[in-house]
Amino acid sequence: MEIVKLTIDNKPVVVEKGTTILEAAKTIGVNIPSLCYMKLEDMDFENKPGGCRVCVVEVEGRRNLAPACKSEVTEGMVVNTHSVRVVNARRTVMELILSDHPAECLTCAKSGKCDLQTLAQDLGIREIRYEGEQSHYKGDESPAIIREMDKCIMCRRCETACNEVQTVGVLSGINRGFESVVATAFEMDLDHSACTYCGQCVAVCPTGALTERDSTNKVLDALMDPSKTVVVQTAPAVRAALGEEFGMEPGTLVTGKMASSLRKLGFDYVFDTDFAADLTIMEEGTELLGRLNKFLKGDKDVKLPILTSCCPAWVNFFEHNFPEMKEIPSTAKSPQQMFGAIAKTYFADQLKKKREDLVVVSVMPCLAKKYEVSRDEFKVNGDPDVNISISTRELGQMIRNANIDFAALTDEDFDRPLGESTGASVIFGTTGGVIEAAVRTAYEIQTGQELEKVDFHELRGMEGIREATIDFAGLPIRIGIAHGLGNARKLLEDIKAGKSEFHAIEIMACPGGCIGGGGQPYHHGNVEILKKRQQAIYAEDAGKTLRKSHDNPYIKKLYEEFLGEPCGHKSHDLLHTYYFDKKKKIEI
Amino acid sequence: MAKYNSHILVCGGTGCRASQGEEIVENLTRAIEENGIENEVQVVRTGCFGFCEKGPVVKIIPDNTFYVHVSPDDASEIIAEHLVKGRKVNRLLFVDPETQQAVSESKDMGFYKKQLRIALRNCGFINPENIEEYIARDGYAALGKALTSMTPEEVIKEIMDSGLRGRGGGGFPTGLKWDLTRKVESDVKYVVCNADEGDPGAFMDRSILEGDPHSVLEAMAINGYCTGASNGLIYIRAEYPLAIQRLKIAIDQARESGLLGKDIFGTGFDFDVEMRYGAGAFVCGEETSLIHSMEGLRGEPTVKPPFPSEKGYKGKPTNVNNVETYANIPVILLKGSEWFSRIGSEKSKGTKVFALAGKVNNVGLIEVPMGTTLREVIFDIGGGIKDGKKFKAVQTGGPSGGCLTEKHLDIPIDYDNLLQCGSMMGSGGMIVMDEDDCMVSMAKFYLDFTVEESCGKCAPCRIGNKRLYEMLDKITKGNGTEEDLARLRNLSNVIKDTSLCGLGQTSPNPVLSTMENFPEEYLAHVKDGKCPAGQCRSLMEYVIDEDKCVGCTLCSRVCPVDAISGDKKMPHVIDVSVCIKCGACMEKCKFGAISVQ
Question: Which residues of chain B are in CATH 3.40.50.11540 domains?
């Protein structure tokens, strides 16, 4: 390791060669203001175009100011991060950025969570000396993501997320000069592009340029309609992050308070997507074993690996990019949609209500779920299985809106029957969780033996691509895990090239899985937050009495009373789906 | 092969071609046939002669007669008189504006006297579409010399010793750049020619490529030999169709002659050149932007380091040089670094090509030794200011250069002197302004360009230049304040200090240099609401001098908005609230009674 010695603000600093001035300054407690820069350690996300010029510092002997995020330290370098020249430049640049940004903070979805707003406050900007024309761009409202590009500051974080991390590649800088903005090709709307709605662009956007489509008013309308029975389901990852919306430590589990707050908001039945996750394991696990056993018997028509299908952004990704492989993913619907299908049949029957009188709301860490609920194949006579999907952030907003003191709530449990779940279902919220849950069930079904230890640490972690071999009583099952669509692409390319030796692969579109979803509270580049959410998820699992999906008594009851058997006829109708070739849909 | 005793060189540059140059060639050829002298006289389409003001230009060799403003109709007379009867066509000769005498040879013309053509040595002399003509002028001899008798280190040392600096504007020592690329180890390296000339009004590189494309190809091959690259790429803007066409022909001919391709001169050295077309973005002249554009990415710069010499095209070491820089290389190798370094000033060696434009009598393309003064360029070569007006300023270095004045006229032109005066060498644009030019408007004009051409990546350039433009616009409309001037200065300095690439780091130069050199003009706009040059329309007022006005009513009849009133034979009055300042009245008035204030 080569060492570089330099001086920052008259203090000696010793860092590794290749360190940037920004990072070097941090080691001595000097936080240089920055804006476009964002790094998610271990997630292959680093955005440092050196474009905003907020982090400029004075380097002795250099003609002009240097961007600290982009300039590597050199031996003997003398850096001043707060000279009059620097402070004036930083302020002036900030005023310029603000001069081309709509001052709509009062009604902006990002207000209070906006990096630009925070920085303007930190720098104490009270006056903009360089006012002038503001740029205006075409707006775009997709089912999941709203793009208000007048608020774009060209930080390019969304491009990095979309192009480099996710390899979806629908966003790029267009136009020149003052008209420059990030857009899709030919400024088409997102829903005409290959966008997967993963929402990672929204997760990293510093301003209100990219936000989720807000559906809280729709939920309120449903709650106010006396003719409707409103049922809510909450995804596993929501409980590990919702607390952050109320200033709680990242990683605080708020399952009980969440259930309590939903009841206070007026939902008639507070259920859990985790229940449907257990159901997913029954279906997907059975499907996996079915395919595997046929394969082991030498059936050439069986295609392996089987790919998980819980993640709607991932489904969009392969429909757009690998439609020729659409027979490979499991046909099991996602837990959100399984829940909707059961709620509007099995549960509606119990209530003796028509499906149209039920409104199913989902609370998801995800923006692609908003698109998923709108897919035609998930509707019966035009009535969607899930009516409205809101994000973790939107639920936080609704709770604040109702002036509920979230931190002071007492824990409550979910309603039954669709609120019971096992530890296997809660780990759906993190990368590696779905496949671990599937293994717990598939192992016991396949081997007929009880698992001695339900924790599969070999499947856990944060590496982008992981692989493990699980011993099914002498039968080695090879498992692959990818999170982040860029990593998924690598595994898919291998499959396409016939190089993949996995039996099953779990894929989650978002870095970290659902805990890092596009609908979660903003992490502002702090990857520790994601890691703490992951720990919380595993803690919830460990604390459960039941840890395996097939042990869920209400699932057993559901099969006995209604479905028959996993992957049976009724399951097939209600709980399985099919995929589309969307490659040709991209038209100019 | 026919041995001609006379050659008629017809300028085939873009400018002269646009003035019926092709028809001149056709008519000359026809007239030659009609006179039956096709075995004695040959018509040659050459590159640019540089004296664009007087184009189309036709030159007769061997007597060097230089005809100007030639039209296709003159062709038969030139052949019949000059080539057949040996009598010069006097009416087509250049007339010296001072002596009013006809001047027959270019060497005796003020425009050419102080010029030294090294980079342009073949422009206007050879047929750029014929490799044999280039070879006859020692073409590819430098490549042969380098490959067969010199090591790459020796070639680089020769370039270093010559003192050649990058002609694209940066002025980075060329030999050093080559050496940096050479020292980086890599399986693949690239040599790039930057032909993305983007300064408004500049056509140095285009003229070289149109007039002498092989000189660039030869130099690129030499560069490849030195740096260890076997791939050459020419990045050229698609709106240079003639340059592209001639380059393509040159590349094909060089390949056919074995001067590009495999095993050049039997030395085992492989080198070939491909073309890449740009869409005409100014910022793509910046080398990292250029490389991104060639890679199919958005043309925008990235922070250096890493420099292209370490990580360039496709992540491989890449040496980017400008067209004019390349055009100097073969001559340096043949004549030696010592010869080259004797030309020019202490820190800037050799010559520089400038596109001389604006309010100067002799608009055109010139090449002068470094160290020539602005006065020599503008007054001796340029022939002074048009219409006897007074010189006011000269903008060097293109849209992001600075505006220099009377007091800078005797400063020798080189990289360092120009920087010191608040301007820069740039790629060689030079625009002369006279007393009628408003310096605030001038700064605004250039900002308009940089606002359009900023790539938009960094905030100070994207937004700051727009704000500069808006403030200048406000001032030219009479709405500026003294406070605006302070803001203008601060913002200009911050944009220079914080922008990512050379575009933003220099774009405020026109503002700063005019504020520095013409402070009173800015003050007149903001304090007195006047434009001393009388160029800012909003600040002008047309008035009728009642002593001179005879009441002929001509002005009131010509006024399109009925702003002028008055009885017959009585002095008339202009209603300024209605007047649209079209100037029609002033033009019509026979008594000089109307003036602008």
Answer: 131-340
Contact (Cβ atoms closer than 8 angstroms) between residue A283 and residue A245: no
Cβ contact B497–A56 (<8 Å) = yes
C-alpha span between B447 and B463 (Å, rounded): 12
Distance from C-alpha of B134 to C-alpha of B140, rounded to nearest angstrom: 8
Q: Which residues contact B427 (CB under 8 A, 6 or more apart)?
A: B167, B168, B169, B197, B199, B202, B204, B205, B285, B322, B324, B397, B398
Provide the pLDDT confidence category of residue B2 given band limits of 50, 70 and 90. Answer: low
Reply yes or no on whether A287 is catalytic.
yes
Task: Please state, in angstroms and rounded to a whole number, the distance separating the CA atoms of residues B388 and B313.
Answer: 51
Res B244 pLDDT > 70: yes
Residue B1 predicted with pLDDT over 60:
no
Cross-chain residue pair B300–A85, CB shorter than 8 Å: no
Minimal Cβ distance to B456: which of A64, A85, A154: A154
Residues of chain B with CATH 3.40.30.10: 6-111
Range B131-340 has CATH code 3.40.449.10: no
Closest CA to A421 of A519, A284, A560, A280: A280
Provide the shortest C-alpha distance from residue B301 to chain A (in Å).
9
Write out chain A residues lying below 8 Å of B500, CB-based: 50-51, 53, 67
Q: How many of the other CB atoms lie within 10 Å of CB of B40?
A: 15
CA distance B90 to B92: 5
Query: CB distance A176–B460 less than 8 Å?
Result: no
**Residue of chain B nearest A66, judged by CA positions:** B498
CATH class of B351-434: alpha beta
Looking at the structure, give the CATH architecture of the domain made up of residues B6-111: 3-Layer(aba) Sandwich (3.40)
pLDDT tens readout for residues A145-169:
999 999 999 999 999 999 999 999 9
Pairing of the two strands A145-147 and A11-16: unpaired
How many angstroms separate the CA atoms of A483 and A469, rounded?
18
**ipTM > 0.90 (yes/no):** yes
Token reading at B520: 């009173």
Is A69 one of the catalytic residues?
no
pLDDT-derived band at B462, boundaries 50, 70, 90: very high
Overall pTM > 0.95: no
Determine the number of helices (DSSP H) and then strands (DSSP E) in chain B. 25, 20
β-pairing verdict for A229-234 and A269-272 = parallel
Mean pLDDT of chain B: 93
For tokens 């350690």, the residue is A41
pLDDT of residue A133: 96
CA distance to partner chain B, nearest, from residue A475 (Å): 46
Contact A285, A441 (CB under 8 A): yes
Domains and CATH numbers, chain A: 3-82 (3.10.20.740), 99-213 (3.30.70.20), 217-575 (3.40.50.1780)
**Measured between alpha carbons, how far is A213 from A219 in angstroms, rounded to an integer?**
13
A128 in contact with B at a CB cutoff of 8 Å? no
Is the minimum CB–CB distance between A175 and chain B shorter than 8 Å?
A: yes
Q: How many CB atoms lie within 10 A of CB A186?
A: 9
pLDDT tens digit sequence for B53-86? 898 999 998 899 999 999 999 999 999 999 999 8
What would the CATH number be for the domain defined by B439-528? 1.20.1440.230
| Shortest distance, CA A206 to any CA of chain B (angstroms) | 15
Which chain A positions have a beta carbon within 8 Å of B486's beta carbon?
none
Put simply, whether A52 touches B (Cβ < 8 Å) is: yes
In CATH, the number for domain B541-596 is 3.30.70.20
Res. B168 pLDDT band, cuts 50 70 90: confident
Residue A587 has pLDDT above 70, yes or no: no
pLDDT number for residue A280: 97
In terms of CA atoms, which chain A residue is nearest residue B453?
A177
